Amino acid sequence: MQKQDLDTVTNVILNNEYKLHEEQENKQINEENFKIDSKNKKTKGKHKKKKTIKQRIFKFIKIIIALFLLLAIFIFLFFKTSLFQKYKELWVVTAMSTMNHQYLATWFLSDEEIQEIMNKLEVQNNEDSNSNEIKINTNETNDDIKVEKITGKNYVGYVMIIPDATKVKLVDARKSNRGSKLSEIVKNNNAIAGINAGGFADDGGVGAGNVLCDATIINKKLLYGNKSTKYSLIGLSTDKKLVLGKYTYQQAMNAGIESAIEFGPYLIVNGNNQIKNSNSGGIHPRMGIGQRKDGTFIFVVVDGRQPGYSIGTNLLEMQNIFNRYDAYNAANLDGGSSATMYYNGKVVNKTSTPIGERYLPNAFIVGK
Q1: Which pTM value belongs to this model?
Q2: Are both 149 and 117 inside the same structural domain?
């Protein structure tokens, strides 16, 4: 082989080795670059992820702050301006007519502001019922008690019609350390029906139901109250007429009242409506008693505090219900969690507390 050919072969080999070496170096560089790129991408991904979480947290905080600001603005407009005056008054009177939720008004308004609203919505009962207009049917009647379901705007209730007035009675239900459930009261008095009547003191919210806080007369005995003080009484006369009016104990005896409780307000007196404002009394579960001119008694219960079923109603609507059933006299009784109607072995309505019936100090019952 000639020298020139040998030089050519040598150069080819050397060039191939160089290219091979160069390719290996490039491959190694590419691998290192890929590793660096992958590392950079992972690092960027972590930073991006951290940044995304921070952004979300910051966005959530901003939303919470905005909601608080909107709430604060709404509370200010609602309670401190007249833009929502009607609803503010309804809110206040509803809160203040409960035993345990008055803070819903006192947190936002001064005592003076609350009292101004309460005074504005106070029902003035300045008329006593005239018993002479009530004519009790003394003939034996075969008319049975009727219970009807009623519905209205945001409420469900029941009306009980008792044609025989002589079977209605107000009874004391207190025991040594508590009151009695309505079902107990009805059964223990050999009755068929009943409704809760007066209120009671409930210090500590235990619901014992045996501590009287309003004037109470049962079977002509003053169980609670001062004999010289005038009270707004809801009573039954000895001849079973519903009596509404302001009386001292002696005046009540002179008027022929057998049993009575202090409560109210009166809804209808001598056929005259007493409630003028739809906000009066607030929205609550309610109980009421009324009587027609022919002596027929009317018991009304309205369920409440149960969204989706029945919220409750105001005093004006209670008055309207009694008007629809031709009541000549009617009055509001203790409502709220106590509002219970019992008939023929079972509680008719759906009480506003999960525990069901409360212990009561007294009740209007219907004998068999």
Answers
A1: 0.83
A2: no
Which residue among 71, 92, 121 closes a domain? 121
DSSP conformational letter for 163 = S
Range of the domain at 114: 82-121
Of 71, 101, 121, which residue is a domain's last?
A: 121
Who contacts 325 (Cβ-Cβ below 8 Å, separation ≥6)?
159, 161, 290, 292, 298, 300
Alpha-carbon radius of gyration of the chain: 39
- The token pair at 106 is 């006192």
pLDDT digits (tens, 9 = 90+) for 263-311: 999 999 999 999 999 999 999 999 999 999 999 999 999 999 999 999 9
Contact 303, 350 (CB under 8 A): yes
Of the candidates 221, 216, 147, the one whose C-alpha atom is nearest the C-alpha of residue 179 is 216
Residue-wise pLDDT tens digits, 296-353: 999 999 999 999 999 999 999 999 999 999 999 999 999 999 999 999 999 999 999 8
DSSP 336: G
Please provide the DSSP assignment of 151-162 as one string.
EETTEEEEEEEE
Cα–Cα distance, 300 to 333 (Å, whole number): 10
| 90 and 195, same domain (yes or no) | no
- Give yes or no: residues 111 and 169 share one domain: no
Answer yes or no: do 180 and 250 share one domain. Answer: yes
